[in-house]
Amino acid sequence: MILDLIFIVSGMILLIKGADYLIEGSVGFSKKIGVSELFTGLTLVAFGTSAPELFVSISAALKGSSGIALGNVIGSNITNIALILGLSLMVKKTTVPKSTLLYETPFVILISSTLLFMILDGNNSLSNYDGFILLTYLIIFIAYMYNMAKNDKNIQEQLFEELNETKVSDMSWNKIIFLVLLGIVMLAIGGDITVRGASHFAKSLGLTETLIGVTIIAIGTSLPELVTSIIAAKKGTNDILIGNLIGSNAFNILVVLGITASIHPVIPDRDITFDAFYMVGVVLLTELFLIRKREAGFWKGLILLLSYIIYIGINIKLG
Fold first, then answer.
1. Which residues, including other chains, have CB under 8 Å from residue 112's CB and lie 6 or more apart?
2. What whole-number distance in Å separates Cα of residue 309 and Cα of residue 78?
3. Secondary structure of the chain in the HEC alphabet?
4. Per-residue pLDDT at 159
5. For residue 157, what pLDDT is reported?
6. How far apart are alpha carbons 302 and 86 in whole angstroms?
7. Distance CA 277, CA 162 (A)
8. Residue pLDDT, tens place only, 127-142
9. CA distance 147 to 174
10. Facing residues of 266 across strands?
């Protein structure tokens, strides 16, 4: 059991660092060939932040551990909103950009609801066909956000700030190729040993892999967002963080599950309908909190945090 935990922690470290290297190399590549910062921020950086979830889910699905694959994404999305956003709001009151409420959140509600209906329609599973549909949604989402960003300075500022945080300067082709390959290798190895450790850990305790996916793995792959949120809250820039978390949820569903289900059907080892409903409910709750005054602080953050604690408690009871 201790060895399993070492595998999980080691895998998480490789996943997080691998994603950093992949983003750095990819952004360096985009600058080298003259891709616009706006498009880079909407695609490469967003893809990179979902890379840990992607490699874990693909590895899990190919190993027959679909509970980890689907649980990881749904659990990460709930963690992003209920735990991470909840904590950041408790640290500092924030005003949400209008663009987030008008453009991003409604689309994420639509995407989350689509995933819920797919799970209900597919008897608690995702088919290859579902994966193709999610990838089609991804193209629409990128085009939609790109069109909105061109006409909205707030979105542009948010994307450019994300790019600046990567601290990528002009680099040689050798360094770009090295970083991209190193990132991919670290992500692949990290995903593999994380899934192996999590699967064996679940079996040794008599738990479902889905439970491990929505809890331990979900929290682990969301650690970068958690650290960023605390820093952003202390700096008073968590208004940008909210948009990042919402966008991360969209890419987790569209990229991670879209690619994973297209490669291999995703069939978890327990009913995940409750978790999917909870994911949609948390996003709806956040929209209701913010839609009137676009402000949220300690008490609304506490409600989100309590909703996460309740979710974890119910999952432990369900096993």
1. 77, 249, 253, 276, 279, 280, 283
2. 11
3. CHHHHHHHHHHHHHHHHHHHHHHHHHHHHHHHHCCCHHHHHHCHHHHHHCHHHHHHHHHHHHCCCHHHHHHHHHHHHHHHHHHHHHHHHHHCCEECCHHHHHHHHHHHHHHHHHHHHHHHHCCCCECHHHHHHHHHHHHHHHHHHHHHHHCCHHHHHHHHHHHHHCCCCCCCHHHHHHHHHHHHHHHHHHHHHHHHHHHHHHHHHCCCHHHHHHHHHHHHHCHHHHHHHHHHHHHCCHHHHHHHHHHHHHHHHHHHHHHHHHHCCECCCCCCHHHHHHHHHHHHHHHHHHCCCCEECHHHHHHHHHHHHHHHHHHHHHC
4. 60
5. 64
6. 6
7. 31
8. 999 999 999 999 988 8
9. 34
10. 126
Domain residue ranges of the chain, discontinuous segments joined by +: 2-318
On whether the CB atoms of residues 134 and 277 are closer than 8 A, the answer is: no
At a CB cut-off of 8 Å and minimum separation 6, what does 295 contact? 93, 94, 95, 96
Cβ contacts of residue 196 below 8 Å, gap of 6+? 7, 63
Instruction: Write down the CATH number for the domain with range 2-318.
Output: 1.20.1420.30
Cα separation of 283 and 286, whole Å? 5
Q: Please state, in angstroms and rounded to a whole number, the distance separating the CA atoms of residues 189 and 208.
A: 23
Q: What pLDDT, on a 0 to 100 scale, did the predictor assign at position 169?
A: 61
The one-letter code for the residue type at 69 is A
Q: Is the pLDDT of residue 43 over 70?
A: no
Taking alpha carbons only, the member of 256, 220, 224 closest to residue 241 is: 224
As given in the structure block, the two tokens for residue 143 are 């085009």
pLDDT score recorded for residue 239 = 58
Nearest alpha-carbon partner for 59 in 49, 46, 72, 48: 72
